[in-house]
Amino acid sequence: MIAGPSRLVLLGNPVxxxxxxxxxxxxLRHACIPLTYEAIEVAAPDLGHVLALLAEDNAAGNIxxxxxxxxxxxxxxxxxxAERVGAVNTFWIERDGALAGDNTDVGGFETLVRSTMDGLPxxxxxxxxxGGAAAAALAAIERWDGCEVTLYNRSQTRLARLxxxxxxxxxxxxxxxxxxxxAMLVVNASASGLEDDSYPVSIEALPYDAAVVDLVYRRGxxxxxxxxxxxxxxxxxxxPMLIEQGALAFxxxxxQPAPRAQMWDAVTMPTDA
Length: 273
Description:
Elements: E1 7-12, H1 20-30, E2 37-41, H2 47-56, E3 59-63, H3 68-74, E4 77-78, H4 80-85, E5 90-93, E6 99-102, H5 105-117, E7 123-128, H6 132-141, E8 147-152, H7 156-165, E9 169-172, H8 176-180, E10 185-188, E11 211-214, H9 223-230, E12 235-236, H10 239-254, H11 260-268
Parallel strand pairs: 1-2, 1-3, 4-6, 7-8, 7-10, 8-9, 10-11, 11-12
Antiparallel strand pairs: 3-5, 5-6
């Protein structure tokens, strides 16, 4: 990468709800880096053109829904992790002008699980969803000792395709309730709860001692996570994953430690009325 990007952006559609600008700008201020991280809504047909223009500006940034998989094909250079996941969420421009991509969601997911369970699990994990978030979770889980995954997705075609890519998936399920049986960790990597208060699986279906992580995030936890906590489960929404993937991206862009405390404060401290 050239010595520091000249511009930082988040590309997605929609992006107005994202907390990334809040914590990335807090990190930039703390590190005395004179840049502003901006969110740009980009329609799918325009992604290639926008990335080409950003490359001319020596920009760097993040890619979010629904462009992560499309961005993979647009990068000239990819990290092994991005290739394994099949998606890019972090990009920058190399010294020769090449667009480079990585996937920091994998590290973000591992941090989320560690913080929820006080370490990494051993045993069966239920994974609900078969998109890019699920692939990032599987890329993390396959590196953990003693774990097997039961995978569920409403589309059996997408489920079969993802299961074939990751041997750590040893079972597939026809229903979410079937998937969570015997699981010590239940992961929602689906869109359930993203735009409404729906649950990916009922609380009653969860094993009594299962931990719960929801890759969807909201201020104050998602309804599913709040319900799981109320029933005594260890549970967290996707905010720790969001912060950590952003911190890992910051470290790639600037080759210095990310100010994680300030990033957390930016999205958790009360704001003035």
